[in-house]
Amino acid sequence: MTIPSGATTRPAPEPTHACVRCGRPVPLDVSLCERCNPLGLEQPATSQVHGTVFVALLLAIVVLAVAGRAALSGIGPFTAQVVGVAAGSDGLAVTLEVRNDGSKSGTTSCRLTRAESRGVGASEIVLTPRIEPGENRRFTTTTGKFGPQPLDLAVDCQAR
Question: Is the pTM higher than 0.70?
Fold first, then answer.
């Protein structure tokens, strides 16, 4: 294939991307077009933009952590004891009494285990109803983890 003598070859178009403000095509090393940056001001470097986003995310995480800590402070500690264990239709009916020694109302999760196993082996996690500060709350729950025959159970509760 030969090129005619009067024809000229066009140079390949320069690669471009969109202006970040209006979308017009601009060279790859420029963020804003001349219309959006008429004074030709220095444009932010990529590291500046990424650094700003990183600082904003870090600040948001810190604010959420402080807010979460403030929302949960004062709930618990919780003390609990097993008041009764009886055979039930679906396993054991366990009656617990839980006390909230904190300054805010809240719920907790309690772990039931066999008293003789000292926390090793089968266990059941039970969620308590809301307990007001300084209040004792008695409730009954049913568990199938320990078989149908009543036995000695131990309970340990943590603040949620």
Answer: no
Band (pLDDT 50/70/90 cuts) for residue 7 is low
- On whether the CB atoms of residues 18 and 31 are closer than 8 A, the answer is no
Structural domains of the chain sorted by starting position, each given as residue range(s) with its CATH number in brackets: 16-72 (no CATH), 78-159 (2.60.40)
Q: Mean per-residue pLDDT for 67-82?
A: 87
Rounded Cα gap, residues 20 and 37, in angstroms: 11
Alpha-carbon distance 85 to 96, whole Å?
Answer: 9
Determine the Cα–Cα distance for residues 116 and 151; give it in Å rounded to an integer: 10
SS (H, E, C) 100-146: ECCCECECEEEEEEEHHHCCCCCEEEEECCCECCCCEEEEEEEECCC
Residue 59 half-sphere exposure toward CB, CA atoms < 13 A: 6
35: left (phi over 0), alpha (psi -120 to 50) or beta: alpha
